[in-house]
């Protein structure tokens, strides 16, 4: 695990794997939020005390979440329709046809047109 991992400015698309993980996380949050909202409304009904403001707030959070999911889908489509970027050992993404790493300047040898990306380390397995 490299300790001094520089994060270069994000000029290139994140990897499809990272996007898919983010998408899964967002979907999970969306499902949880929807369930919470349902529970909230039911509780309001039970107590016959509707709090419009709260419901509106939760709904607009969900709408915002949906908007981000749509965005993410678009980026994911764009990211998967092109060759995945290779990564330098410093962690920087290497643009296609580059000979030098944009992060650390390492000479990467002959420029390749993409090629097989290194498999991304998967995070701890989800349930
Ligand atoms: Zn590098």
Describe the structure.
The protein has 127 residues and is mainly alpha-helical. Helices cover 48% and strands 3% of the residues. It folds into two domains: 67 residues; 32 residues, no CATH class. α1 runs antiparallel to α2. The two termini are 25 Å apart. The radius of gyration is 21 Å and the shape is elongated. β1 and β2 form a beta hairpin. Zinc ion (ZN) binds next to loops.
Bound molecule types: zinc ion
Principal-axes shape call: elongated
Give the total of domains.
2
Oligomer: single chain
Radius of gyration: 21 Å
Number of helices: 2
**Percent in strands:** under 5%
Structural class of the secondary structure composition? mainly alpha
State the end-to-end distance: 25 Å
Q: Mind summarizing the main beta sheet?
A: 2 strands, antiparallel
Order of helices and strands: HHEE
Count of DSSP strands: 2
Widest sheet, order of strands: 1-2
Write out key terms for the chains shown.
127 residues; mainly alpha; two-stranded antiparallel sheet; 2 helices; 2 strands; binds zinc ion
List strands and helices in order, with pairings:
Layout: H1 16-47, H2 52-80, E1 86-87, E2 93-94
Antiparallel strand pairs: 1-2
Summarize the structure.
By secondary structure, the chain is mainly alpha-helical. The protein is built from 2 helices and 2 strands; from the N terminus they run ααββ. A two-stranded antiparallel ribbon has the order 1-2.
């Amino acid at each position: 695990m490299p300790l001094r991992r520089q994060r270069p400015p994000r000029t290139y698309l994140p990897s499809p794997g990272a996007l898919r993980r983010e998408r899964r996380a967002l979907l999970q949050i969306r499902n949880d939020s929807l369930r919470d909202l349902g529970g909230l409304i039911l509780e309001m009904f039970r107590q016959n005390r509707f709090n419009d403001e709260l419901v509106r707030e939760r709904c607009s959070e969900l709408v915002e979440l949906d908007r981000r999911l749509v965005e993410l889908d678009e980026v994911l489509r764009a990211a998967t329709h092109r060759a995945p970027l290779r990564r330098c050992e410093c962690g920087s993404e290497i643009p296609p046809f580059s000979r030098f790493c944009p992060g650390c300047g390492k000479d990467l040898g002959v420029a390749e047109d993409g090629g097989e990306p290194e498999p991304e380390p998967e995070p701890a397995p989800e349930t």
